[in-house]
Every structure is written in structure tokens, then in C-alpha cells.
Design goal:
This protein has 27 helices and nine strands. The protein is mainly alpha-helical. Among the domains are: about 130 residues, Up-down Bundle (Glutathione S-transferase Yfyf (Class Pi), Chain A, domain 2), CATH 1.20.1050; about 60 residues, no CATH class; about 150 residues, no CATH class. A five-stranded mixed beta sheet has the order 3-4-5-9-6. Helix 2 runs antiparallel to helix 4, helix 10 crosses helix 15 and helix 14 crosses helix 22.
Length: about 700
């Protein structure tokens, strides 16, 4: 009997083990997702699934391309452009999940996998872009487009694909195509290395460890408790640890009385990638920039900036430089006045030192308190994360009629993630929204909006989007909920604007659906920030976390009066980074230069004052490694559009004006890729944008 029981137990254990093995053996990317709204089944996805799924995706798209180029029928929109537009479904399916997770929840295994996958997908994209037979078919359709019975969306799709192929080297000689392949492979490898170094330098390689309570003077209880929890998690219980993540960094720079420690923490921040260690990015960024010069030259452009900006609303680097210079003049003048006032404050307090860049946040906060009787610690208790989230949902409901319903059983990739179904006013499905709020070691810094699935059409049926917002906001601490700074509050509204763009996009052709020019793509996000600070909106979501009291009118008034304070600093440090980006990408020949010397010369040319450094220095300027190369300026360009767009609501007397909201949704969010950016904007606004609302908002008039 005992032997029978033992055999039975062994059989059950083996069966359970088999089920676990089967669960991992079945690749979830190879079948339709059996989940709510077909979101990715994160509970079933294992790291080992990605590479086989990518390889299958590449093979399937290769077969689809072969079918297009070997089609004996004459090239047409349907058999060439549409067939190409819908190819690569499997590859998009796995790549969108892998890319999102590698940014939001990575680990050494995922990073190692990325080093394998990125060269594969780069080679695959080049194989398509440099496929002459495919290009000749696209070219034939392009040349006949105006004499065909095609609608404007079809014509624009043809034109964009034709332009893509030209810009990606389709007209190059075979020898030059091989050079381009080599450049793209090297760029892929170096960009991965830069990103991995940046992640390590931000999340791992630096900690400010404080051992004495008196060194925390000036900090709030919440900031101190959070630092104690970080220390405990680092095995340093009884101490306090501050990191380079913004929720830890900025409160310390803003409130800590200990100037020496403020400087130490800030130095850790601005020296990322510049510590002459294995994570140093100076040589890597120079390789990337020189490779981009070679690529631009190969494709017939003077500079990489010319190559990139040609596709934007600005069209030329010269137009960008003129735009930045125009705004830098008033911003710098006011920033200098603010600097001088802070220096006087230092002197009045009896201190004998010159204001340094690491002092700016601390003395700006003191100056704001003196001038407006307002500080961040007075505002923060009213910005409970969950309330801010509900506030932005409220704004979207008032503008567009949509609702957000929690999906409790949706698969998630981390326990902190929230998932919502988005529905129209009539209850019909719009899409799914993932929210991932807090920092962790495997998450890139900053905030962004991505896609686990973009909107598309398959056989005439709409496939709905799955959108994700990822941030690095202050965590709950003890019995205190997650309280956001005003900057974090605006950031959440900002990324939500990107999410609405992704959710509302509706187009038959993937190439143009939702595809805005880079310097217009921040319009949907930045315009949402305008609602965050409206008194009517604040009274909906800004409630004290202890008492539930709605934010008082008197505090709102002080916030509004102080709203332009320090905007000159924000504008100057931003423009400085934008100029640095343009200068690097305006190099005409590959060169061996000292990265720090080049950066200094760039900042000296615009006469940047010592008390302000660029928002991003070269060695940690991750935006220009990603999709913002020669394009970091776009946030300010789009700020002209967003403030002008919001002015339409203000002028109507109703910030929730549904007619204006419907026009914005249609011409910008839904159909924005159907024509050139300014044409779509004029369809919404009825006029060209004015800079005046932006100048007023930033106090630069």
C-alpha cells in the first residue's frame, strides 16, 4: 500500500511538473491571446519566448515580401502598398511587448536578449528597405498614383512609403548599400550599450548615504521616510539613501539645508556616463554621432540634422535654431534676474558663496516662498496619485465622453501595474490602458507612453489599441499614500495626452495612422497639461490626503500667481539641451573631438550662465539616442501649438467645449497622419498658431 501511494504521489508531482513545463513550452506569441480584450498574457510570457517569436516574425515577413515582389501582376495599391502595409504582423506583435518590457521591467536576461534581437531586427529592416525589387514595385505605384482611382489616404500612404525607401537608401549603389548596412548595425550595438550604461548609472551606480538625522534638515517627513525605506531595501537599515531618480533627487535638492550633500547628489546626477569607468558613455556617444554623420552623407545630406528635420514641421535646422534663439533671449534675461535675486538672498542670510547650479532648486524654492508665500510642500498633500489619475480621467470624460473601468483580472507584468478598459459614451470599446507609476531597478528613468498593440485593421475589422503609460513617481511611504509634486502631476496629464492619441487613432493604413511629425507629436500630450492647473479641474481631484478637503481657492490663486516663477530657468535649461542636440547633429564630417570640450564650446556660444547647465548633458542625453535625435527641440515647438490650441477653449468660455474637443479629436488625434502637420492643425484651429499664448504662459512677454 505504501509503495502504491508513493507511486501515485510521484505521478502527481510529475504531472504537475509536466503542466508547468508545457506552460512555458507553449509560446504565447504563436497564437491568439486568450485574455480580456486580447491583451498580452504576461503571466504566460517567459524570456525564452521572445527570440523564437522574433525569428518566426522575421521569417513570416520575409515570405510576405517575397510574395509581393514575385507577384506576376502589375504593381497596384492593393497587391504592393497594402500588402506591404499589413506585412509583419507577427514581428510587430512580439516586438511591441519586448520593447515595452525591456524599458519598463528589464533584467540582465532581457538585456542580453536585446543584444541578440536588435542586430537581427536591424538587419531585417535593412533587407526590406534595400530590396530593389520591392522598391521598384513601390516606385511604379508611386509614379502612377495621381492617375489612379485612389483616395487621399491611399495616395498619402504611397507617398510616405516611397519617401521611407528613398530615405533608407533604396537609391544607393550596391556598394553604398553595404556601407549603410554596416553603419546601421554599428549604431544598433552602440545605442544598446549607451542605454544599458545610462540605466546602470541612474539606478545602480550611485547612492547618497546619509548617516546623521541632522543632515536631513529641511526635508519633509515623507521624503525622510522614503529615504529610510530605500536604505532598508539596500541593506542599510538605520540610514537614509537618496538616489538619482527624480522622486528622490528633487526633494533633496529643493529642501535639504546641507549644501555639501546637495552638491554631492547633484554631481552624481550630472556626471552620469562621465566617470571614466566601464559605464562611461563619452566614446560611445562619439561613435554614434560620427556614424550618423556617415549615414547622412551616404544618403545625400549635409548633416544628420538636415536628414531628420526635413521630415518635421520645421523642415530645416536653421529654422529650429532661429526658433530657439528667439525664445532664449527673453528667457535668459529673466533667468539672470532670478539668479541675481537668489544671490542677494544668499548674501542676506550671511553666507559667503556664489550661487552654483546645485543650489538653484533650493534657493528658487526659498525665493518663491518669499515672493508668493507658496512652497511645494504646501501643495503636495493635495495631489494624491489616485486622485490625480481620476482627475485626468474626469477631464477626458468631460471633453470626449469616454470612461475608464478597472479590469481586475487583466494580466500584468508587475504587481504595481493598473489596467483600465476605455469606452465611448455609448459603451463601445475604445482600447485598454496600462498604468505603471513607480521607480524600480529595472525601469528606465523618466516617463513615457508606449504601445503593447497599436490600432490597426485586419480584413476590414478594427483591432483596438493597448496603450501603456510608464512613469517614475514618488512611492507611498508608511501610512502616507503616493503624493505627487506639481511637476509629476503635470507629467501624468502629459503622458495621458499621448495615451489618448494612441487610443483615438483610427486609420485603415498602418503607415499613416496616428503618424504625426516629430515636432507635432508632443501636441496631444502637452495640451492636456493645460487642464491640470485650471481651478475648475483642480477642485475635482486636488483633495488633501488626510482630511479630504478640496484645495482652497486661496491656495489655487497663489499657485496661479506663482505659475510663471522659474519658467525662465526651465526654458533656458531646456533650450540649452536642444541647442546641444542640434550642434552635435550639425557636424559635417566625422571627427575625433573631446566630448566635454565640444559641449562646453556649444554652451559658451549661446552664453549659458554658469548657474544653469543643460537639462541633459551629452553622456546621459538618452532622448537623442532614442527617437529624438536632432529633435529634442520639438517639445518647445509643440508648446506653441498646445498653448494656442488650449486658447481656443479659453476664448470659447468653456474649457470643456465639446465642439472644439471633437475637432481636436478628429483632426489631430484620430486623423492627424492623413496630411501634413500644419494642414491638420489648421483644420482644427482654423488659423495658424500664435506664439503669444506660450510667451504669456511662461512669463516671457
Amino acid at each position: 500500500m505504501r509503495n502504491i501511494l508513493l507511486i501515485l504521489l510521484t505521478f502527481i508531482v510529475a504531472l504537475l511538473s509536466c503542466k508547468q513545463t508545457d506552460k512555458k513550452a507553449v509560446n504565447p506569441f504563436f497564437s491568439e491571446y486568450k485574455t480580456p480584450f486580447q491583451v498580452p498574457p504576461f503571466d504566460l510570457i517567459d524570456t525564452t519566448h521572445f527570440l523564437p517569436a522574433v525569428e518566426r516574425g522575421i521569417a513570416e515577413q520575409n515570405a510576405e515580401i517575397d510574395a509581393i515582389v514575385n507577384n506576376p501582376d502589375a504593381p497596384s495599391f492593393d497587391n504592393t502598398i497594402l500588402a506591404f502595409d499589413k506585412s509583419g504582423k507577427q514581428l510587430r506583435k512580439v516586438s511591441s511587448v519586448f520593447g515595452s518590457l525591456n524599458s519598463a521591467n528589464t533584467n540582465p536576461a532581457m538585456q542580453a536578449l536585446n543584444r541578440k534581437i536588435s542586430p537581427l531586427t536591424t538587419r531585417h529592416r535593412d533587407n526590406i528597405s534595400l530590396n530593389d525589387k520591392l522598391f521598384q514595385r513601390i516606385k511604379a505605384v508611386y509614379e502612377a498614383r495621381l492617375n489612379s482611382d485612389l483616395d487621399p489616404e491611399q495616395i498619402r500612404t504611397i507617398e510616405k512609403y516611397y519617401s521611407d525607401f528613398i530615405r533608407n537608401g533604396a537609391n544607393l549603389s550596391e556598394a553604398d548599400k553595404e556601407k549603410l548596412r554596416k553603419i546601421n548595425q554599428e549604431l544598433s550595438v552602440n545605442q544598446i550599450k549607451f542605454t544599458e550604461n545610462h540605466l546602470a548609472e541612474t539606478n545602480v551606480n550611485f547612492k547618497l548615504v546619509v548617516e546623521k538625522l541632522e543632515d536631513l534638515e529641511g526635508l519633509s517627513k515623507e521624503a525622510i521616510d522614503a529615504a529610510a525605506e530605500t536604505a532598508k531595501a539596500s541593506g542599510l537599515e538605520g540610514k537614509w539613501v537618496f538616489t538619482l531618480q527624480k522622486p528622490s533627487l528633487l526633494p533633496f535638492l529643493t529642501y535639504a539645508s546641507n549644501r555639501e550633500l546637495r552638491e554631492k547628489l547633484y554631481r552624481g546626477y550630472f556626471m552620469r556616463g562621465n566617470n571614466n569607468n566601464e559605464y562611461d558613455n563619452k566614446d560611445i556617444i562619439l561613435k554614434i554621432l560620427n556614424l550618423r554623420v556617415e549615414k547622412a552623407k551616404l544618403l545625400g545630406y549635409e548633416t544628420f540634422a538636415d536628414y531628420i528635420i526635413e521630415n518635421n514641421m520645421a523642415k530645416t535646422p536653421q529654422a529650429v535654431s532661429e526658433f530657439l534663439n528667439e525664445l532664449m533671449l527673453p528667457a535668459m534675461a529673466i533667468a539672470k534676474k532670478d539668479r541675481d535675486e537668489m544671490q542677494k538672498l544668499i548674501n542676506r542670510e550671511g553666507d559667503n558663496f556664489k550661487l552654483a547650479s546645485s543650489d538653484w532648486w533650493y534657493y528658487a524654492e526659498k525665493l518663491k516662498k518669499l515672493k508668493y508665500d507658496l512652497d511645494e510642500s504646501e501643495m503636495k498633500p493635495y495631489f494624491v496619485l489616485s486622485n490625480v489619475r481620476d482627475g485626468m480621467f474626469h477631464v477626458a470624460n468631460k471633453l470626449f465622453g469616454i470612461t475608464f473601468t478597472r479590469i481586475p483580472d487583466a494580466p500584468i507584468y508587475h504587481p504595481e501595474v493598473e489596467v483600465f478598459e476605455v469606452k465611448e459614451a455609448d459603451g463601445s470599446h475604445v482600447g485598454v490602458l496600462y498604468l505603471d507609476y513607480h521607480p524600480r531597478p529595472g525601469k528606465n528613468s523618466g516617463a513615457w507612453c508606449g504601445r503593447f498593440r497599436s490600432q490597426t485593421y485586419e480584413d476590414g475589422k478594427k483591432i483596438y489599441p493597448v496603450v501603456t503609460i510608464v512613469t517614475n513617481f514618488t512611492r507611498p511611504s508608511g501610512d502616507t499614500p503616493a503624493l505627487l509634486s506639481w511637476d509629476e502631476t503635470q507629467t501624468l496629464f502629459h503622458e495621458f495626452g499621448h495615451a489618448l492619441h494612441g487610443l483615438f487613432t483610427d486609420g485603415k493604413y498602418d503607415r499613416i495612422a496616428g503618424n504625426l511629425p516629430r515636432d507635432m507629436v508632443e501636441l496631444p500630450s502637452q495640451v492636456m497639461e493645460n487642464w491640470a492647473g485650471e481651478p475648475e479641474v483642480l477642485k475635482v481631484y486636488a483633495k488633501h490626503y488626510k482630511t479630504g478637503e478640496v484645495i482652497p481657492d486661496e491656495l489655487i490663486q497663489r499657485m496661479q500667481k506663482a505659475s510663471v516663477f522659474n519658467e525662465a530657468f526651465n526654458t533656458v535649461e531646456y533650450i540649452a539641451a536642444s541647442v546641444l542636440d542640434i550642434d552635435w547633429h550639425s557636424i559635417r564630417e566625422p571627427k575625433q573631438v573631446d566630448v566635454l570640450t565640444f559641449e562646453k564650446e556649444s554652451m559658451d556660444r549661446i552664453k549659458l550662465i554658469d548657474e544653469i547647465i543643460p537639462r541633459y548633458r551629452t553622456t546621459y542625453f538618452s532622448h537623442i539616442i532614442g527617437g529624438y535625435a536632432a529633435g529634442y527641440y520639438v517639445y518647445l515647438w509643440a508648446a506653441v501649438l498646445d498653448t494656442d490650441a488650449f486658447q481656443a477653449f479659453v476664448d470659447s468660455g468653456d474649457i470643456y467645449n465639446k465642439e472644439i474637443a471633437a475637432r481636436f479629436r478628429r483632426h489631430v488625434l484620430t486623423e492627424g497622419g492623413n496630411d501634413e502637420g500644419m494642414i491638420q492643425y489648421r483644420k482644427f484651429r482654423g488659423q495658424d498658431p500664435s506664439k503669444v499664448p506660450l510667451l504669456k504662459k511662461r512669463g516671457l512677454l
